[in-house]
Amino acid sequence: MAVTPDRPHHLVAVHPLHAFFTAGMVPLFLGALITDWTYANSYHIQWSNFSSWLIVGGMVLCGIVLVLSIVDLVRHRAGRSVLYFLVVLATFVLGFINALVHGQDAWAIMPEAPILSLIVFVLAAVAAWLALSGRRVGGVR
């Protein structure tokens, strides 16, 4: 006879694709932060271009994560799901503003670009932490 553990709704494991996209946006936004910092120190325009492309990649993954967080919110409606959704939404909105700032001329993005990239990276890291920590399947009784 198989024993299935009772799992509260707040301890449901995150889907592997959801985890992949959530964890994937963090290094892209980190790369954007690093290339913004490098541009601020060197003023080589190519670093600004690298940042723009890394932000686009991060925003694509963040958009997918936003949709998946809405699904998670509808399915579980727990306090952690609401917080996770709000953090992902803030990441998406500020990431979009960051992309608009990076769409300007390279000289015009300073000093907003590194500051926005730092905020977006921290929000993405918090979102990944909320999605991937504390959610286990099974466990010890």
Helices and strands, with pairings:
Blueprint: H1 16-42, H2 45-76, H3 79-102, H4 112-132
Summing up helix and strand content along with how strands pair, one would put the structural category as mainly alpha
User: In whole angstroms, how far apart are the ends?
Assistant: 17 Å
Specify the helix fraction band: over 70%
* Total domain count: 1
Poorly predicted regions: none
CA-atom Rg in angstroms:
18 Å
Can you write the helix and strand succession as a string?
HHHH
Can you count the beta strands? 0
The major pleated sheet works out as: none
Number of helices: 4
Tell me, what's the shape?
A: elongated
What is the beta-strand fraction? under 5%
Instruction: Compute the average pLDDT.
Output: 88
Features:
elongated, Membrane protein, mainly alpha, single chain, 141 residues, 74% helix
Question: Can you offer a commentary on this structure?
Answer:
This protein has 141 residues and is an all-alpha fold. It has one domain (15-132). It has helices spanning 16-42, 45-76, 79-102, 112-132. The protein is elongated, with a radius of gyration of 18 Å. Keywords: Membrane, Transmembrane, Transmembrane helix. It comes from Lysobacter defluvii IMMIB APB-9 = DSM 18482.
Short synopsis of the structure:
By secondary structure, the chain is mostly helical.
